[in-house]
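General statements about sequence and structure are easier to judge against a single worked case. Part of our work consisted of pairing the sequence of a single chain with a tokenised description of its backbone. The amino acid sequence and the backbone structure tokens for this protein are reproduced below.

***
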Amino acid sequence: MTQIDVISGFLGAGKTTLIKKLLSEALQGTKVVLIENEFGEIGVDGGFLKDSGIEIREMNSGCICCSLVGDFRTSLAEVIEKYAPERILIEPSGVGKLSDVQRAVLEASEQAGVEPGSSVAVVDASKCKIYMKNFGEFFIDQIEHAGTIILSRTQNMDEAKLEKVVAMIREHNADAKIVTTPWDELTGKYILETFESVKSFEEELLEEFKHEHEHHHHDDDDDDECCGHDHHHHHHDDDDDDDDECCCHDHDHEHHHDHDHDHEHEHEHHHDHDEECSCGCGHDHHHHHHADEVFTSIGIETAKKFTAESVKAFLEALEDDDLYGMVLRAKGMVPSEGSEWIYFDYTPGEINVRTGSPEYTGKICVIGSELKEDAIRELILK
């Protein structure tokens, strides 16, 4: 029977990098289909994985647990009929709630006759604290509902900080396996075996969802909640000096052009107790939002030719949230003057620019909160 695994993770955590490692080191010879669900109209990650040798189905402009739930069921049925895969990997949008994705997968799997497998959350250890505080409704949900949590960018993090990250995660998930070892020290096969070994916790989750599904399936009274599910999120402050931080940008930091560099950067935004956080998440975590109520995506297709320097320049400029809004993720592939294209990834404080093979046109995706679209387009395309 076809198995479905969910590889979730917040914006820029490293989901695509992990999937590439699994495909090259653990799933060779396995008939795999990847279903990509990106937030926004333009999908980029599928292009990053196009040389992986697997079938990729992209689903953009929505979430598989909400606006695209019907499309997801259809896509799943089509994928099984056309490819008869041994394994389906689901890479949800970075701003999707894992609990809702699990529910959609469970419901679609029952109809398609496939077996739900593992639920994994990839967590950027260097940004765990700040994302937990500022975007907890989405970030914490991924942690709470994962059977295995795989930390990325731990290789340059000192032990004390890493222990604090693990402790923060344990406040929200006491049972999950947490992978803290740097990825380059582990084989993809070992990582796969690690999350496949988590059975009892996964089975408990499935039983919970089945029970809720029987009693609350398509409850019309829950129109304001994604998939009719009431999520309980808990906001924990610690004793550090940056309890009031509400931004992911540090305007004084240095840029590190190393994709795996650990860089924890934080600065403070102060809010009155009655003021809602300007990032859109709100300090009142009793509200339940759809991703498109909090986050914005800008998709750009362009034939403009760039240099590595010009790409780095506009990515560095995006750190200015006064000019461009709070940019949490930028990625893309654009033409250069030569035969190779320029591929890039950005999260606050971290820029990775590299070469790649040509695409049919240049594609850029920018995701964040309260983005200033006109200014961003002018910056990139000027």
Summary: The longest helix spans residues 200-216. Residues 45-49, 63-69, 220-247, 250-286 have pLDDT under 50 and may be disordered. The first strand starts at residue 3 and ends at 9.
